[in-house]
Design brief:
By secondary structure, this protein is an all-alpha fold. It has helices at residues 3-22, 34-41, 45-57, 76-100, 103-121, 125-141, 146-169, 178-188, 192-227, 238-241; strands spanning 62-63, 69-70. It folds into 2 domains: 3-73 and 230-241, Arc Repressor Mutant, subunit A (Orthogonal Bundle), CATH 1.10.10.10; 76-221, Up-down Bundle (Four Helix Bundle (Hemerythrin (Met), subunit A)). Strand 1 and strand 2 (69-70) form a beta hairpin.
Length: 243
């Protein structure tokens, strides 16, 4: 395999794992097993290992004392910090998008919003989760700021585990698409301030569902530690994950 093809395979593997984090595919504390991921992606262990190490360096994953690599556990302070940063940067992207969006971009966003309505009506939370991400990044693409979008992608990679808990424990209701429609109206009216406010409100609505779960899980984790019990999810396949 030549250098270019090798690098491309590594990047593709990295992108697939990072997308899994952004899309809340992985659960908090979940150990990522190299052999399992390699089989799933149809690649050898090497690009998976290098992708995981890269994601550890970027703080999207953590390395355990036994050298296994896992999704970070949920921590309240970390989530609150990420929430503030997301509101600032994603609000900026929405503001920029209101001034830069073109007719094709507006039509795409309208179509996604309509699809989200269907997903909510059908209680299809997996579809909603995917469409929600599609809406947000279609919006951010209209900001025409690739560096800003790259930073936002990293933030989503860190917050994905929190979102996975939201959908496991308390799926969204009809309010899920309300702020998306507000953002769309703001873009149609070239109102950057309202687009920003709608985006911040959308993030805040999700946080109202997530924060109680974080408090509960933090209390459970503290209780386990006091009793000297291991975490509920065993770190399986440790030697395999470290290979």
């Amino acid at each position: 395999m030549d250098k270019l093809a090798y690098r491309s395979l590594n990047d593709q593997t990295y992108d697939r794992i990072k997308q899994g984090l952004m899309a809340a595919t992985f659960r908090p504390g979940e150990t990522l097993v190299i052999r399992t991921l390699a089989a799933s992606f149809g690649v050898s262990a090497t690009p998976v290992r290098e992708a995981l190490q890269r994601l550890v360096a970027e703080r999207l994953l953590v390395m355990k004392p036994n050298r296994s690599i896992a999704v970070p556990e949920l921590e309240l302070d970390a989530y609150v910090e990420l929430l503030r940063i997301r509101c600032e940067l994603e609000g900026l992207a929405a503001d920029l998008a209101a001034h830069r969006v073109d007719p094709a971009g507006l039509e795409r966003l309208r179509s996604i919003v309509a699809d989200i309505d269907v997903a909510v009506e059908m209680h299809d939370h997996a579809a909603y989760r995917a469409l929600n991400q599609t809406f947000h990044f279609a919006l951010y693409d209209e900001a025409r700021s690739p560096r800003l979008v790259g930073i936002i992608q990293d933030l989503w990679g860190q917050t994905g585990p929190y979102v996975s808990e939201l959908f496991v424990s308390e799926p969204y209701g009809p309010e899920a698409n309300r702020e998306h429609k507000r953002i769309l109206r703001a873009l149609e009216g070239r109102d950057g301030a309202d687009a920003r406010d709608g985006l911040v409100a959308d993030i805040t609505i999700a946080s109202r569902h997530i924060l109680p779960q974080l408090l509960r899980m933090g209390a459970e984790r503290s209780t386990r530690h006091r009793r000297g019990r291991p975490p509920a999810k065993a770190e399986h396949a440790q030697s395999d994950a470290a290979q």
